[in-house]
Every structure is written in structure tokens, then in C-alpha cells.
Amino acid sequence: MEESAKKVKRLTITLPEEYVAGLEDVAGDMNTTVSEAVREAVATYLMEHYWRETVGEVARKAIMAGASNDGALTAVKKKFPHAATSLASIS
């Protein structure tokens, strides 16, 4: 999907000065805007940390920790609230 075709939402955030300075450095290195540097940083974080686990991995970890199928489904829904995972999927 082209960047211009993606839905975007404007956010206003407050960051410590040293974060802003770091983002300005990154933007300079990338020869782009601070906004693009922020988007890149957020996307990288999400891909490497938050979205790294799959639904199956979350369910498997919960079951291995002693959770019932219902408990595993609860863990999945907590991590992936919009997932179409059902109890049958967990079973």
C-alpha cells in the first residue's frame, strides 16, 4: 500500500528534550523530517518488541505456564484485542 493511501492520525506528544535532540540527529542522518524519524522509530519498536510474538506463541506460553484454554484465550485477547481467535483455535 502506498504511503499516501494509508490512513494516518495526528498525535500530539510531549518528549524530554534529549529524546527530541536524538530524533533530530536521526532525522539528519536519514535526510528526512523529525516526523518521519518518529514514525520509523515507532514502527521499528513495534516490529521488534510488541508484534514479535504471534497469537500461537502467546497461547502456548500461557498453557505452558499452567493456564487453561480459557486462560490462554484471555492472554491472547489481552495481547491481540482485535484478533479473531476463538476457544476452538486455542484447543
Brief synopsis:
This protein has helices spanning 17-30, 34-50, 55-64, 69-79, 87-90. With 91 residues, the chain is an all-alpha fold.
Task: Give the arrangement of secondary structure elements.
Elements lengths: L16 H14 L3 H17 L4 H10 L4 H11 L7 H4 L1
Helix pairs in contact: 1-2, 3-4
Description:
Helix content is 62%, strand content 0%. With 91 residues, it is mainly α. It has 2 domains: 11-50, Arc Repressor Mutant (Orthogonal Bundle), CATH 1.10.1220; 55-90, no CATH class. The relative contact order is 0.08. The mean pLDDT is 88.
Number of helices: 5
Number of strands: 0
From the structure provided, what is the oligomeric state, counting identical versus distinct chains?
A: single chain
Q: H/E element string?
A: HHHHH
Which range best describes the helical content: under 10%, 10-25%, 25-40%, 40-55%, 55-70% or over 70%? 55-70%
Shape: elongated
CATH topology of the largest domain: Arc Repressor Mutant
Look at the helices and sheets and give the structural class.
mainly alpha
Distance between the termini: 35 Å
